[in-house]
Design goal:
Low-confidence stretches: 1-24
Largest sheet: 6 strands, antiparallel
Distance between the termini: 57 Å
Strand content: 25-35%
Structural class: alpha+beta
Mean pLDDT: 83
Helix content: 25-40%
Oligomer: single chain
Number of helices: 5
């Protein structure tokens, strides 16, 4: 093999090793994965714009502060904040109160859990406070 080809092969192997090492430890330890989500309200507001068909004029929004939930069979230990709100079903009709759980990974919003059984387990005993910021969302 000539010198240039050896260099290219060596570089490819080095980059491949770095990439596989990064993928396997993308977040590192449990402490890094479970950082308290300092901007949880802002993250949730942004996610709700996508989650809801019409995020405007939400009523009766409340939120719990994120709590580190222990691992279960369905989910590893994560910070979870719970929400209750009444969003629009159509332009003039409201769907009724809904409760969902916002799950965080490495201090950032990861997903909403809205299946009733899982959400109820995650949000049992949640201490809710008003969330007026959610009630003033725009579409964009």
């Amino acid at each position: 093999m000539n010198r240039c080809a050896s260099f290219v092969v060596g570089l490819a192997l080095l980059l491949g090793a770095c990439a596989s090492q990064h993928r396997s430890g993308a977040y590192g330890s449990a402490e890094e994965i479970n950082i308290f989500p300092a901007n949880y309200k802002t993250d949730i507001q942004a996610a709700m714009r996508v989650y809801l068909n019409d995020p405007t004029d939400i009523r009766d929004a409340v939120i719990s502060e994120p709590v580190l939930k222990p691992a279960t069979a369905a989910m590893p230990g994560r910070y979870v904040a719970c929400l209750r709100f009444n969003a629009k079903r159509t332009a003039t009709v409201y769907a009724g109160m809904k409760e969902i759980a916002a799950v965080f990974l490495a201090g950032r919003f990861d997903q909403f859990i809205d299946s009733p059984k899982e959400e109820q387990e995650l949000c049992v005993n949640a201490a809710y406070t008003p969330f007026p910021e959610l009630q003033t969302l725009s579409r964009y």
